[in-house]
Design a protein that fits this description.
By secondary structure, this protein is of the alpha+beta class. About 30% of the residues lie in helices and about 20% in strands.
Amino acid sequence: MFTSGCRCRKMAEAANETLESEALVLGIDLGTTSVKVSLVCHSSRNVMESIRFETNAGICGVEPNFAEQDVTKVLTVLNHALRNLSSALLGKVTRIGICGQMHGCMMWKEKCCLDWETFDDYLATTNSISHLITWEDGRCTPEFLSSLPSAHQKAGISTGFGCATLFWLKRNDPGVLEYYDFAGTIMDFIVCIFCQSDKPCMSSQSASSWGYFDVGKMTWELDLLEKADFPTHLLPVVFEPGVVAGKLQKPFFGIPVGTPVGVALGDFQCSVLSSTSHLSDAVFNLGTGCQMAVVIPDDACIDERDESGQIPAVDITSDALYVFPYFKGMKVVTATSLSGGNTLATFVDMLLSWIKELGIHTNLPSTDDIYQKILDCADKKASTSLKITPRLWGERHNPEERGRVSNLTSSNISLGDVTLALCQGLAENFQETMSKEFLRLHGIRRIVGCGSALLKNGLLQKHLEQVFGLPLVLSDSSDASVGAALAAISDYGSADS
């Protein structure tokens, strides 16, 4: 079950020195496909130990457009990851930071967080928690979304957003909402377990990703939601990023009781935090989907044109650009594409399925082997006239858009042509969401590229530089679990204050 685990450790001498003199911070990232945990030195910010395991938590047998995960599997993998960290180092942990997939939604019974010894306890109490409905969920069709009230905020509502999911359940399966007492992200649920909280809290980073949240006022749009018969009683209390949600109430893998636990954060913001410290950097992260971020001061955030019609200092009038809370009062302008590493993975899976359909069932290549071979084929092509628009799932700002192949001829249908066109199309598709003109106007001098799907794809790296006209600097230090730890190092106050 615990496949694809990877580990990174500093030299033993450094670890021994840390044991004697340094406090550590534990960072946890609950991603869409994996769990990663990292131990970071409080003073030096060095990563002392880090490990990741795939969760394989997706649930088969649900409706084709549903995307749900088994929460107990995620908890079990988190348990396993923590067991693989050094017990001596865990005993030096003085703070815990948690982040993960922001849009996802799960529900639980009021008392289920108050009685636990390890996460394994939940394997026998699955009736106390729902499945996790992830950001990839597609049950909220464009027609359904158009029936929802218009949010006051520019960041609208999309399928896979927590509030959209709860609206759907209210109209299609209201008994589920009556059975559970609270809703939140899976990170909020784990914070409740750690702190033995009887009511969840959520960071404004996650709340703004759920929809119907006023970032300026730090409140849900309750008047609008109540008029639409939304189950507002399920919504968590919201705090600023960096607030201490509570303290660890029981010994956990050697981490001392009383260790402060931060309110759960967005994995995207934490990835950006671990990637760069310069406002002239844009961060491009290619994971399942892909995102680009530009950090701006709070007072520079303007989402409309001034009276003269001129473009303001930070123009976010594009439908594809959104502004979310970052850290220390700053904001992050983001562009997100639903077409990223998942597009390449789908292409590889398609090729493997074709091989099987041809009746070849022995000595099958692995998906990693296929991925490397198609890149090798594309490297042999200087260019291609084939054009691919890889919008297999549309885009949040244009959900009905779909992928297209054009200029198809008898001379550009090789595997190399298709792979080259696919990588070029991914780069061009993303440039349509956050343009190179936007980056230039706002002082961006380079792009910091991160995410495993980008780091292992030199072809896509080349096309990103060509499309945006900026140098691409690769960073393998971009790590949401490390970012969660770094965010936990800064004290902002307590949720009790």
